[in-house]
Amino acid sequence: MSRVTVTLNGRDFTIGCEEGQEAYLRELAGTLDKRVAEISGQVGQIGDLRLLLMASLILVDDLKEADSRVEALEGQAQRLRHENRGAASLHAEARGRLADQLNRLADRMERLADAFENGDDEASSDSDASAQRDTLAEAGA
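^ thats the sequence. predicted structure below, dont judge the formating
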């Protein structure tokens, strides 16, 4: 156990702490001392106990506000994660539909190329018309 001396409202206090926590304890005491000095500047020297009580209440209020903000941000992060999962699912479905359409289009193009190579003008006209109807139907026209 280590001991550290901190100053609050101009008075020194020696308190115990765990080894390695001395600097952190001094930092905490410094924050509290600043609050006490602010309050003392506003209301005057009303006694150490009252100044520490008021500073403590202010710090607890700050802590509660911070906790509320953290809770709100965690809720927002959760909603965003949920929305992201939904969007990813929709994107995956859309990619799947697009891939299917591209495969069908590639098949049609191959049939058209085969028809042109074979000199089958009538088949190519029928394929063109059929492909156009299918494309319009898929597009919802």
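The CA atoms of residues 112 and 118 lie 10 Å apart.
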